[in-house]
User: Fold these one by one.
Assistant:
Number 1:
Amino acid sequence: MNSAVQTLLIGLRTTISNIRANKQTFLISVMTIAISVGILGVFLIVFFNLNGLLASWNQHVQVVVYLGDDISPSQKSDLKDLFKANAKIQSTEEVSKERAWQEFKLQQRDSADLDLGFNPLPASYRIRFNTSENRSLHISEFAEQIRGEPGVESVEYGEKWIVRFEKFMIVCRVFLLGVGVLLSLGLILIVSNTIRLSIYSRQDEIELMLLIGATPRFVKIPFLLEGVLQGLSGSLLSLGLMGAIYIYLKNEFQPSLESIARGMDFQFISQPFLWTLVGLSVLIGFVASYISTYQFMQALNKR
C-alpha cells in the first residue's frame, strides 16, 4: 500500500478516535458552524430573491412619454421617427386622452363620482424595450434624450424607485460580505479552540510520537482531518436548516411575490453558491486546525 495512503488511513482512524474522546466539544463546534453558515445562507436566499424581484421589475418597466396638449402633428411625427430609429425599442403604443381617462376611471371605479366636466389627463406613448443585459441603461438614456423634444411634457419610467432599489441591493451586497467575513473569523476561532483542546488532551502521546521519530506532518494529519470534518458536517447540517427555512419562506411569501411580479418563483440558492458555502466551511475547518497545530508545534520547538 502506498505510504501516503497508509498515513492518511492512520490519520483518519486517529481522527475518529479523537472525535469519540471529545464528542461534546466536536458536536458543539459542528452545530456552531451549521447555525452560522445557515444564517449566511438565509441572507443569501433573501438577497437572491430581492435581486430576482428587481430583475423582474426591470423587465416589465415601460417608458411613458406624456405629450403636451398643444403638440403639433409634425412634432408627433418627429417623435414616432425617433421611436422607429431606436433598435432597442420593442413596441410603441399610443394612448389618447380619452383612453387614458377611461382607464383611470376603471381603476378608480370604487371611488366617488369622477365626473369633473373635463379630461385632465394628457395623451401619451407607452414604450417597451427589448430584453437585454443593459436594459435599464438603455431606458434611462432614451428617457434623457426624449425629455428635451418639442411637444413632450414629461417622461416617466419609475427611475426613482429603481435607483433606490439598486442602491439598496448594493448595501445588501456589502452587508452580506461583512457578515460572511465576520462569521468566518468567528468560526475559525471556535474551531481552532476545539482542535486545540483535542491536541492538549493528547499532548503526552504526541510528544512521545515525536520522540520515537514521527514526523510533524504525521502528527498534524488527524487534527487537520478533524477540522475538515467539522466544517463538512456543519455545512451539510446548514443545508438542511436552509432548506427548512426556504420552504417556510416560500409558503409564506410566494403568493405576495406573484402579486408583485407575476411568474416569479421564490428561489433557493443556486448550486454554485451552495458548493461555495460547503467549500468555505471546509476551508474554515482546515485553516482553524492548521493554526492550532502550527501554534502547538511552535510551542514544542521552543522548549
Number 2:
Amino acid sequence: MQTTAVCPTCHGAGKSVTATCHVCKGEGVTHDAETIDIDIPAGVEGGMQLSMRGKGNAGKSGGPAGDLLITIEEQAHDHFTRDGMNIIHDCYINFADAALGTSVEVPTLDGRVKVKIPAATQAGKILRLKGKGLPSVQEYGRGDQLININIWTPKDLTAEEKAILEKLRHAPNFQPNPTKEDKGFFERMKEMFQ
C-alpha cells in the first residue's frame, strides 16, 4: 500500500527555511504601512472604486502583490447638491426682486457668475446653466448647474413694511391666479431630467 502526503516541513513548497528571521518569522514579508499619492479622476461619485495595481498586500511565498482598492466617499458641499453629473444650487431672492426681476451672483465650479432673474419669477423656478456641472468619468462632456429659485419671506417686519404690504394685500395683481404654464414642482423636475 502506498500513500502520498504533503511534506510536513516545507508544506509542499519544495524548500524549507533553516534559519528563521527574527523580523519576519520566516514568512519572507513584514507588516508595514506606506503612504502613496493617487490620482482621483474628475467627476467620480461616492461608491465608485479605484484600483492601484500591485499596491496591495504582498503575495504568499514571494508571489506578486495584490491590488489596492480605493472606495470613494463624497463630502457634502456648502453650496451644491449633486444629482449625477448635474449640480443643484438653491438661490434665495426677496419678493420685490422676484416681481420686478434682478441679476444675482451665484457660485459655480468655475467661479461666480451673474444670472438674470426675469420679472414675475415664481418660487421653485429652475434656471439652467449649460455645461456648468460635473465632468463625466467615462465619457466626454459636462452636466449642467440647476439654480432653484426660492422666494425669501421676511420674518420680522417693521410697522412701515407691514403698512405697505397691507395696502398691496388685496390689490388685483397680488391675488394668486395660476395658469397651465405655471407648472407644479414635479412637472418642472420631470422636464429638467428628460
